[in-house]
Write a structure and sequence with these properties.
The structure is a homodimer.
Chain A: H1 12-19, H2 52-65, E1 79-82, H3 96-111, H4 121-126, H5 129-133, H6 137-148, H7 153-166, H8 182-193, E2 197-205, H9 206-217, E3 224-235, E4 241-251, H10 257-265, E5 272-275, H11 281-288, E6 295-300, H12 326-335, E7 338-341, H13 342-345
Parallel strand pairs in A: 1-2, 1-5, 2-3, 5-6, 6-7
Antiparallel strand pairs in A: 3-4
Helix pairs in contact in A: 3-6, 7-9, 10-11
Keywords (chains A, B): Signal
Protein name (chains A, B): Haloacid dehalogenase-like hydrolase
InterPro entries (chains A, B): HAD-like_sf (IPR036412), HAD_sf (IPR023214), TAT_signal (IPR006311)
């Protein structure tokens, strides 16, 4: 294990905004009764209610795949981009990756016992969530560096796989990988069935999401664009080469970083983009500025019963995680982006319901 | 146009090593008689002579695509990586992208007349190749910054397309895009016909290669991994978003940068890799260190008559562009990499022969 250096800004906002929510965690141990609605409708989006959102998706796919339609897109050019946290799976009360980082701290300290009495590790080990929420930025960055870097890419993958197999969301008591939104899984499949390559474009860590993206979303590693740190090539004592994850930020894939990351990783403009927060604004603008038929959609979390309700758009409670601002809502209305109401547009939220 | 800042190291080696060769250009205006050999053999690699190299490719493809073979690779996991300069097309006497940068200087000066009497633009405009070869590093970086950054990604693409349509290689008097090696185009196709996704992994500029990779190699933009600079998201006066190419190096995709770039862009280890120089060593090592059947190949430029001859491996003339060192040759022999002799393994070099 290498000495821990402060990573230059790896997902600073993600970490900070999540930790600010930590005190709210304590009340979250009661399961919600499953809505248990199953669809009897045919068609490719069975978990969607009829409405503007479902129609926007079906219309887009028909227009871009019908050779006689002026909006036709050649199969090799069909690309759709999806934010992950809050768009494809649950992001409240805290991003799953941040939970991972905090829960990895005991294992890190076990390997480096000298950290036990050093901040911020001491505070995280104490379990005092209010104290954790008050940790200064430099300390939060040390947690990210210690849990996301300093190991080989294979070791990191193995650690995340192990954690995902054991960890349970406190509300639904299920693996985090089961908290993907069933209606969105149907959109991914419908687009792929119509020749689209589906990409994740996430503010979360690229290597973290890659571990489960194939299994959960059917999306291979090369189609995950995320916040990415550098790696360093080296050799082990047997001369076998390996890559070490370094505390060096290459791409902060949030806000303007999303179209920039899309250019780096895909090199062309997607035809469709899905998001749910102000961090997706520039991606939707970039996708919308292209020629031809474009699909721009935002998931609004307005279902406190079946999932969570937060905005502060539309008078929903404010949130530092996955903020959907009134300004974003206005821009959506003005520019023809479709807002998906989880409450009204989705028959069910999860596959297990 | 933004003021030109020195880019932090964008392809410094590429630029320097190419310019060092400039004096050699003057003698290169005589066309070589076409070899005009056409194959009568069947099979997927008609431009290859029978031999160890051709057999290595065919054996690899059979082993990894036959479900009853222990080396079988699932179709979704089949990935092959190709260096470009010197592996897929001609790199002598100078990398094509460096020719582009030098030939763009007059257009840059036309837009910014104040540069006319400023170094290094003054020297490049003079056409004095010996003086150009003596330009200091900081000046060379200014040429790269001025010709590869400071414009939108669409403007850059348009400029490269225009240049490629008009520019001619001085030896063959043909567009650079016709100087792809026919035997390697057949390898790309044979791999794709067998379910492999083919990637370019080049020290050249990612955005430069993306302009023609689909047309020349059948490789889409998202499968080009290259030396990459950052972009910056912004809005034009009408509020339309665009991305500007910035003089900021994100990925130096040479040497150890190749496996690092592969991890960033692909996120998994290719099964096959093709290169031709010391800059490909770490990529081949990385690919070779994976499990199962692996194909590692190096193109040796040993055909002074039909193309160029350089090493200095095997007593061939030394070269700063595309160096194939004796040490690399030894490593290939020791680790089971196959060296492709252009002279002996290839029936023809170009499609136009």
């Amino acid at each position: 294990m290498k000495p821990i250096n402060p990573p230059s800004g790896i997902n600073r906002r993600l970490m900070l905004s999540s930790l600010a929510l930590l005190p709210a965690l304590s009340g979250l141990s009661r399961p919600i009764p499953a809505a248990a609605q199953t669809s009897t409708e045919g068609g490719p989006l069975p978990s969607w209610n009829d409405g503007a959102a479902k129609r926007a998706i079906l219309t887009f796919v028909r227009a871009t795949t019908d050779p006689s339609n002026p909006g036709f897109v050649r199969p090799e050019d069909r690309i759709a981009a999806f934010d992950q946290d809050g768009t494809l799976w649950v992001e409240h009360p805290m991003y799953t990756q941040v939970v991972y980082c905090l829960e990895r701290v005991p294992a890190v300290v076990e390997k480096q016992p000298e950290l036990r009495d050093v901040e911020p590790f001491k505070t995280v080990l104490s379990g005092d969530r209010e104290a954790m929420a008050r940790l200064p930025m430099a300390d939060l960055e040390r947690i990210l560096a210690a849990t996301l870097t300093g190991m080989s890419v294979e070791e990191f993958t193995t650690e995340v796989q192990r954690w995902l197999a054991a960890a349970r969301d406190p509300r639904w008591k299920r693996p985090y990988t089961e908290l993907a939104y069933q209606p969105m899984l149907e959109v991914l499949r419908h687009l792929r069935d119509n020749g689209y390559r589906t990409y994740i474009v996430t503010g979360g860590g690229q290597d973290f999401v890659r571990v489960y993206a194939q299994q959960v979303y059917g999306i291979p590693p090369e189609q995950v664009v995320g916040t990415a740190g550098g790696t360093k090539f080296g050799y082990d004592t047997d001369g076998k080469p390996f890559l070490t994850k370094e505390p060096k930020l290459l791409l902060n894939n949030n806000d303007a970083g999303k179209p920039e990351g899309i250019h780096l990783m895909i090199g062309r403009r997607p035809n469709a983009a899905f998001g749910n927060s102000v961090g997706d604004r520039e991606m939707l603008e970039w996708v919308g500025a292209g020629d031809g038929v474009r699909l721009k959609m935002l998931v609004l979390h307005d279902d406190a019963t079946r999932e969570y309700a937060y905005g502060p758009a539309q008078g929903l409670p404010d949130s530092k995680v996955g903020t959907f601002s009134p300004g974003l809502y206005d821009e959506a209305g003005k520019d023809g982006w479709t807002v998906i109401s989880m409450k009204n547009d989705w028959k069910r939220i999860f596959a297990f319901e």
